Automatic annotation (TrEMBL), chains A, B:
Residues 12-72 form the HTH tetR-type domain. The keyword Heme does not apply. Residues 35-54 bind DNA. This is TetR family transcriptional regulator. The lineage of its organism: Bacteria, Pseudomonadati, Pseudomonadota, Alphaproteobacteria, Hyphomicrobiales. It comes from the Bacteria. Keywords: DNA-binding, Repressor, Transcription, Transcription regulation.
DNA sequence: GCGGTAATTAATCAAGTGTATAATTTCACA
DNA sequence: TGTGAAATTATACACTTGATTAATTACCGC
């Protein structure tokens, strides 16, 4: 009986593969299904190998969460593109309510992880960082949009607008990703842009990307 | 060595206790911490007893989820009270962004459960029912508010407003319950009411509860 | 080509899980 | 006050989990 053949990989590649396999497992089977054996199998590797690249399973999962959140925010941020503040804000909104950010698989992973935040300090930290990053991005963009329109606004006002807009985007993202409604017949981007404009006190007709 | 003493309870009481113990476990330890032994311990009972009242652990968890969602919606609905449609909508909003609906423990439980929805059909059904119920409630109230104000609106318009308002409430609920921000210094009810009014095209000064 | 090193596998372990069942105890009812 | 039936406990089982370690294998540098 011969052993299975294998080939060596760089640390970066292996870590990447293992994280990807973890996210796949979580997406399809939930967090409980992301066992060491399942992850190893999906990564085309043996369970024992995981511990060469991650101290323990907890670290692996936390790393996967970190990568996931980081990629998610990067994808949203990429929608900003360049141009006027208004254009960038509109781009962020569009990106937030369309694939790949707004997507069933993405939501599944997010949901699985979010449930651990309260009882796991390591996960809480990862969550907190990502959340802050997105919220700051939204707040900054709002401030820029107001400045661009020569509209005076106190930091408090901007902060409150950021809270509300952030909530709206989160909620829409969840609703759309969940897919409970028939959003295929609806122009979700238009709805998101219009509501945003309304909330910020901008004429919707004047707020496009 | 003598056995521990015990006393018999009605089926209703025992089921209730076990479900409460399950929710407590989930809230404090996450879904993974809600083991049969932990739940039994918190219910002051022996693990084996669980299976006399629930076919298996899956059923127990699903039942806990069902009561949780049901109670949550009931709490929100209770905020509606009676009076004009506008008053009731305002009441629903107030209830949605204040305790006990908006609350860390509530969010923890919700988050833990929501992560299972995608990979567990039974949980998906429970979720779907609750989600529908809340969404319909919001949509109905919006329709009544518009009717009350003598403002014509097509079903599509109402539907879209419901989507947006529901998203806003979900998002605010999460943000507030998460407690990342310093909401203690903020009048979250006022913020929620004002944004709702703005979204629905109502003068915020004219929308109070 | 070849040897040494480090990556990878294979096999195993202890702990914890949900479940099943027989032995006990409580309590309603005679 | 006994007694039978039902609720509850205690114990055990089969299985899965994350972790550990020794044996093997690939491959880099000479």
């Amino acid at each position: 009986m011969t052993r299975r053949t294998f080939h060596r990989e760089s640390e970066a590649v292996r870590q990447n593969d293992l994280i990807a396999a973890t996210l796949d497992s979580v997406a399809e089977l939930g967090l409980a299904g992301a066992t060491v054996r399942e992850v190893a199998f999906r990564a085309g590797v043996t369970p024992g190998l995981i511990r060469r690249y991650f101290d323990n399973k907890e670290r692996l999962v936390a790393s996967a969460y970190r990568t996931f959140i980081s990629d998610l925010i990067a994808a949203a941020e990429a929608g900003c593109g360049e141009g006027s503040a208004q254009t960038r804000l509109a781009g962020l909104i569009r990106a937030s309510v369309t694939a790949p950010v707004a997507d069933g698989r993405t939501l599944s992973i997010w949901a699985a992880f979010i449930g651990t935040v309260h009882s796991d300090p390591a996960m809480a930290e990862v969550h907190s960082e990502g959340y802050q990053a997105f919220r700051d991005l939204v707040e900054r963009l709002i401030a820029e949009v107001f400045a661009e329109r020569g509209r005076p606004a106190s930091p408090q006002e901007i902060h409150q607008h950021a809270i509300v807009l952030n909530a709206l985007l989160d909620g829409l993202w969840i609703e759309i990703s969940m897919g409970g409604d028939d959003f295929s017949r609806l122009n979700v981007v238009q709805i998101a842009l219009n509501s945003t404009a309304t909330l910020l006190g901008i004429d919707p007709a004047d707020f496009k990307d």
